[in-house]
């Protein structure tokens, strides 16, 4: 989304917010409304690894715009891409942009996407609380993904064979398929966290959003696992150091496994999906991202009032 168009839409969005807040007081429940930036119904497909943060933003979005009804559908990366290419979805949240080959489908249809980056996420390695090591070498993880063995990494556990975390690390390892030994897939990030909690020796791979912002039902598991620190060979200068996926390490680039998050809109026109994208990238949305532990695209400013002493 170019800067000029984004500025115009943001102005419309703010004006619409003013009138919608006034109008919502007298709008009867259940009254049908046309889809606009702040009203109507739409569906957003969300990558499983960032499910919690989108849920939080949508909860606030719905509370502000009571005539908006955005249904969040959580899926794997491959499922979301397939839905886009089959034209069964138009607004999605993904930790990557579409490839040139994937984009060609929409170019043929004359559809230019609205791309809205809103945060930087990280892929985290977790292990059982009883583990002696609190660090892991990225090269050992990649070695296992290449089908080799490692004395330090015995078992890797992903959330799903079609997930974005699998695709990210396979690309980093330079391989196209998950090896048949020492790498296992479950179904969800929740299952990975519970499995690692109960299984000494396993290393789970999840989106960091699930660790900094877990559902209430997962808190007791997250509180009793260890998040491993990872080395960063790109910045090592003779002395190896390890970094955890904290907000500050993501911001400074010290943590090596990060990725941008995007709202991708292939609708071909403005609607409620556009309104959601504007909101999540606005100062209000970015404050929610900041509080979640992820890194917002823009750091919201804080106004400090200086009072003159009498």
TrEMBL record:
Residue span, PBP domain: 39-284
Keyword Cell inner membrane attributed: no
PANTHER family, per the entry: PERIPLASMIC PHOSPHATE BINDING COMPONENT OF PHOSPHATE ABC TRANSPORTER, PHOSPHATE-BINDING PROTEIN PSTS
UniProt entry tagged with the keyword Signal: yes
Protein source organism: Flavobacterium cerinum
Keyword line: Signal
Protein's name in the database: Phosphate ABC transporter substrate-binding protein
One Pfam family of this chain: PBP_like_2
Positions in coiled-coil regions: none
InterPro entries: PBP_domain (IPR024370), Phosphate_ABC_transporter (IPR050811)
Source organism, top-level taxon: Bacteria
